[in-house]
Design goal:
Helix content: 10-25%
Shape: globular
Structural class: alpha+beta
Largest sheet: 5 strands, mixed
Number of strands: 11
Bound molecules: zinc ion
Number of domains: 2
Strand order of the largest sheet: 1-6-5-3-2
Order of helices and strands: EHHEEEEEHEEHEEE
Length: 214
Amino acid sequence: MCYESISFKPEWWDECEKVARRRSGCHIGMGKGKEFKDGRLSSYESHLVGVIAEAAVCIYCGQELNREILPGGDGHRPDLVMGDLAIEVKASQYTPPYLRIDAQAEEFQSDIAMLVFVSIQKRETEFWGWISREEFIEKSSLTDLGHGERLVMKPPFRDPALLHTISSPPKAPCYACRREDWWLSWEGGWTCRVCHPPVEGVEWLGMARHGSSP
Ligand SMILES: [Zn+2]
């Protein structure tokens, strides 16, 4: 299921084309309305699809769109950071999109991956949701869809609206024990580690998120 779609304004699209050109080292613009040949994306075209997806998440997270805010991840950096949360943005040109991760290339280093369908023709993106690294590892399976074995997971994914809730822990201490040591439960959101410690395998995000004050 697609949670939300964004239609790109012309100025957003132009900005993305500039970034894609720079990333691909290609300085020749692509004519508007040109169709991609299936499965044979040029370097510029595949960069553009990735940039559009990153830009869509930026817009969704309420960030201004400009070239400085589209840093782009290489293999070991997250594409975007929101609050304390490192986000890997995965673009797809198929619906329903599958989340495909090359396990050997260690593509999934961020806390979560966000799956975005990109329509170049319509200049639209659709959010298909996100998944934490831990949950993806548990629910994905090794599948060969034609480009070698990948870890693959099909929808549904988690609702993007939850991102605003999970991107940072509560700013106040636990009302019961007055400590600030939160963990994120798959079902129940931010939970006090002292009062309700997690059992193995129920943490959404593997790392501890401590409150800001001592
Ligand atoms: Zn507590």
